[in-house]
Specification:
Blueprint: E1 4-8, H1 19-39, H2 41-48, H3 54-66, H4 71-84, H5 86-89, H6 92-103, E2 107-115, H7 116-125, E3 129-138, E4 141-147, H8 154-163, E5 171-176, H9 182-185, E6 190-193
Helix pairs in contact: 2-3, 4-7
Length: about 200
């Protein structure tokens, strides 16, 4: 029997919105969300101009909104967000595809640049494995820094290879929607770009 594995990007592929932005808006409201992004706009512009990395820009945003927050409080907010808000932005076609893959015996893994704190509860509820960005914690507080590297681009491939021996699989399906997913899509025997639009 052939062994199958499927890797899905999350934000934009499975969802209609970026969950990091939505998590910030959900937690702090639209006014604080807009103020924060206005204050951090130089870093966002620098990233768009390719002057700084995705990793650096993301840390600036995470640090502004969540830096120094108690770890337990942060994880409780993430769980609430995962249960209440993520289902609203999930694409029905994506979930149908995931259920079909699972029914056909494929292992299904979410591979995301978003932090695992709000993706893990959603993955647990849907019986999916997760590879995602890890948030640094010091003295039981979120620092806003990323532990290791942002799970984006080539790092997605590194993290997949650390977790799975792909030579053991006959069919590898990969789903993504941005240039940051293209290294992952190159691992596939069958790849899908922006498949559920």
């Amino acid at each position: 029997m052939s062994r199958k594995i499927a890797f899905f990007d999350f934000d934009g592929t499975i969802t209609t919105k970026d969950t990091m932005l939505e998590m910030i808006r959900y937690t702090f409201g639209s006014w604080r969300f807009m103020l924060g992004f206005m204050l951090k706009s130089p870093f966002i512009v620098a990233y768009k101009l390719k002057l700084i990395s995705n990793h650096t820009a993301k840390q600036q945003v995470l640090k502004f909104f969540f830096g120094k927050m108690d770890k337990e409080k942060f994880n409780a907010l993430c769980k609430e967000y995962a249960e209440e808000a993520i289902p609203v932005v999930v694409r029905a076609k994506a979930m149908k595809e995931i259920e079909m893959l699972k029914a056909n015996g494929a292992a299904v893994i979410i591979v995301s640049a978003s932090p695992e704190n709000w993706l893990q509860p959603w993955c647990d509820a849907n019986g999916l494995q997760l590879i995602a960005t890890r948030m640094q914690v010091t003295s039981d507080r979120i620092t806003g820094r990323i532990e290791g590297l942002n799970c984006h681009g080539e790092e997605k491939v590194c993290r997949i290879r650390q977790s799975f021996d792909l030579s053991q699989y006959d069919q590898i399906y990969c789903y993504g929607d941005t240039n940051g997913d293209k290294p992952m899509l190159d691992l596939a025997t069958v790849s899908f770009f922006k498949p559920f639009r």
